[in-house]
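Query structure, 229 tokens:
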């Protein structure tokens, strides 16, 4: 097992119970070192599981996409920081990013630029004057100014954004699909190898692993694809 390639893969534990998540973690074993706990699992007791995963030596990304008034964001961020987690997502609004920075301490903050299920038409429908490429670039610059540690963006934007933010910014990309896999609700996708080659520090993969007939094999195939670069 190549640890370096393995640590680039973050598996999204998008299941509805802690029991289902634990079963997946057991199945995946040492094939996976980094997990994401998002809203579905967090609202089903997943924050306690996050602690369990940390205790077992895994890295844990809390994906709660915070966005609220500054005081609330700062205090909520401080709560997650106290849990000793690795990453936390916030929305890439300047007030939200500044407030989260104030509460984060050593916790790494990832700002969500434009959801990977959105395209230009979806942004227009939601009332934005910018298309995806321009809004991601604007938010990337604002995130850098706010001292945020990383960005969530689609792999399609990596080549434009990496030069804008420099080598230190963590670029984490969902919207990743092995060749031939179903894109589902994702609109801006690339393969694992393409995303890493385009400078992603980490890729986030959910359903292609968690809904696979053999999740461990699916995860190992992705790690092998990254390792083969
Ligand atoms: O913040 C995220 O992780 C996220 C941002 C984004 O723009 N798009 C996106 O898909 N995600 C998350 O990444 C995961 C992708 O899952 P799959 O589409 O099943 O691989 C889900 O847990 C999403 O909540």
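Result returned for the query:
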């Amino acid at each position: 097992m190549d640890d370096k390639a393995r640590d680039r893969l973050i598996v999204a534990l998008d299941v509805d119970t802690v029991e289902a998540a634990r079963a997946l973690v057991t199945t995946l074993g040492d094939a996976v070192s980094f997990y994401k706990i998002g809203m579905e699992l967090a609202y089903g007791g997943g924050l306690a599981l996050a602690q369990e995963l940390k205790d077992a030596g895994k890295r844990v990304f809390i994906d709660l996409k915070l966005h609220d008034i500054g005081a609330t964001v700062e205090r909520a961020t401080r709560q997650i920081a106290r849990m000793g987690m690795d990453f936390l997502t916030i929305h890439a609004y300047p007030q939200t990013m500044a407030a989260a920075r104030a509460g984060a301490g050593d916790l790494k903050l990832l700002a969500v630029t434009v959801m990977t299920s959105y395209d230009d038409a979806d942004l227009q429908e939601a009332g934005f004057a910018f298309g995806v490429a321009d809004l991601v670039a604007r938010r990337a610059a604002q995130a850098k100014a706010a001292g945020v540690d990383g960005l969530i963006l689609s792999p399609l934007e990596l080549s434009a954004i990496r030069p804008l933010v420099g080598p230190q910014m963590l670029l984490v990309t969902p919207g990743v699909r092995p060749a031939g896999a179903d894109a589902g609700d994702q609109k801006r996708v690339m393969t694992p190898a393409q995303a890493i080659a385009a400078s992603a520090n980490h890729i986030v993969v959910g359903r292609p692993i968690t809904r696979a007939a053999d999740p461990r094999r699916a995860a190992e195939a992705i790690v092998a694809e990254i390792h083969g670069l």
